[in-house]
Every structure is written in C-alpha cells, then in structure tokens.
Amino acid sequence: KKEVGEITEDDVKMAQIAKARLIGFRIKTNPLALKLAENQKIKIINFDIIYDLVQAVRQIMEKILVPKEIRIDLGKFKTSIVFLNKKNRQIIGGKVIEGEVRKGALLEILRNDEQIGQGKIINLQRDKKDIEKAGKREEAGILYEGSTKIEQGDILVIYKKEKQEKKL
After folding, report:
1. Mean pLDDT of all residues in the chain?
2. Residues of each domain in the chain carrying CATH 2.40.30.10
C-alpha cells in the first residue's frame, strides 16, 4: 500500500494480516501505531535517504527469492567392468572419456544413448587408492549408489548441482 502521511494503526493491522514490514520515507509513525507494532512484533523501518530505502527493499526481496538449482556437466565415463553388485550399490571400472569424474558427483546412466537411471559417486579409486577426481583418458573405479544396475558399455554422464542465488 502506498499512501502519503504518517504510519497509522490501520497500516500496522494490515501489515500484521499480510505478515509484512512497514517501510516509510521521511515520515513519522503515529505513537499508537508504534506501540501496536511493538506488541505485534511488526517491523517499522523509516528512511531519510531514498538510496538507503531502495537498498533495504532490494535486500529484503533477495532474501525472499528462492535460489535456482543449476546443473553443471563435468564429464563422461565409459564402463568396462562391473566388480561388485549389491542392492543399491555397485563397484564399476572404466575410463573417463570426456572432462573429469569427481568423488561425490551425481551421474546419469546412458544405455544405447537413452537415459535409464541416475545415482551418486560415493567413492573414486585408482590403483586401490582413494582419489578425489580422475581426468580424461584415465582409468578409475567408482563406488556408485543408485537403484539402476550399471552394465558394461554404459556411459555415465557426471554432473554436479549448484544453487545460484537470484539477484534483482
């Protein structure tokens, strides 16, 4: 609501219903409205400089915005052997054919160029030693967690998800 004049009790009541804050520019707050706002825990902010008001409103609105989740593809891995098959876990071996593979990354399983499942890389090894990542043309073993069974020849598309803060 935009209106000329001081902040009144009606403004505080409306802010309470809307679960809002009251923001003023070079105005006074009615003493009864101020007391009601304190009792109802309604925040009243008054500014004398328009730049400060705009900046405060921007910060409030940015807190309300939900971060957007984006996918970042890291690489591709070709499965050459399956060492272990358990209910929701497998140990597989293969080669990085593009980009890199990282421990903790997510993956989607492609069989005959069709996505058939997804999961997560729990651990990554080379020569029986834990590693954080494997680059292009490197062989590695992956401890995979997911409900879809990976088979020899499957391509794993490795990716991560990041939250991207929205800006006004």
Report:
1. 92
2. 70-162
pLDDT at 134 over 70: yes
For 38, the token pair is 């304190």
DSSP 7: B
Q: Which of 141, 123, 127, 146 is nearest to 80 (CA)?
A: 141
**161: closest CA among 117, 104, 113, 77?**
104
Domain 70-162: CATH superfamily is: Translation factors (2.40.30.10)
Amino acid at 89: R
- In the chain the beta strands, taken as DSSP E runs, fall at 22-25, 44-47, 68-85, 89-102, 106-111, 114-126, 129-130, 133-135, 139-145, 155-164
Contact predicate 24/46, CB 8 Å:
yes
Q: Which residue has the tokens 């954080």?
A: 132
Verdict on whether the full-model pTM lies above 0.70 = no
